Every structure is written in structure tokens, then in C-alpha cells.
Amino acid sequence: MGEGRWVEVRVSTDHGVNEKKCVKALLQLRKELAGEELPTQDVVEPSDDSVAIAVALMGAGAEQTVVAVLGDWIRRRKNPATVTLTLEGDSIGIDRPTFEEREESLTAFLTRH
Description:
This protein is α+β, with helices and mostly antiparallel strands. The chain has 3 helices and 5 strands. It has a single domain (6-111), classed as Alpha-Beta Plaits. It is 40% helix and 26% strand. Strands 2-3-1-4-5 form a 5-stranded antiparallel beta sheet, covered by helices on one side. A hairpin with a 7-residue loop joins strand 2 and strand 3 (50-56).
């Protein structure tokens, strides 16, 4: 990944979730993040049973924007149910049923690095 702070958004394709659906979902997320002027890029490292993108945390309020876009995106998804965010080697998992409960934790996670 390029310069700056990048958070990896990884969707697991295990538990019978179709990889093509995960890729399509991430493409939609990228489109929504681009609409908020947040750069994204592919994650090229191989990883078993998952697909991922990276989102740049640039500018004032980027963390809150990522949380808002991600929350809306997760709430609309049937699959994938769980998404893992990784920033500077630290990870947090979030899913649709617990997003509201984890929203504050997610914001703190993105801002503490």
C-alpha cells in the first residue's frame, strides 16, 4: 500500500459465502467510498478464503466517514456477515447484527493508530 494510513477491509469467503458475491460487495463499497473522496486500492497479498481492499484514512474526519459508509454498507448486506478491518497490524471484526454496538469501538480503533 502507498504512503499514509491505510485500513484493510477484508471479507471472509468461508462458511459457504460465494467469493464472487464478496468481490461484488467490495466493488460497491469502493464506489461508495469514492463518492466520499476516500481513495481505495486492491490488496494483493494472498490470503486464504477472503477478499480485501484498502481504504486511505486521509483528511479531517476520514475515520468517521469510513465508519458511516461501512456501517451503511454492512447493514445492507445479507452476505458477507463478518468484515475484518486491519490497521497497522491490529484487527477488529464487525458484522451486521452488532454494528451499532461496535460502532464506537470501530471509531476508536481507527483513530488510535
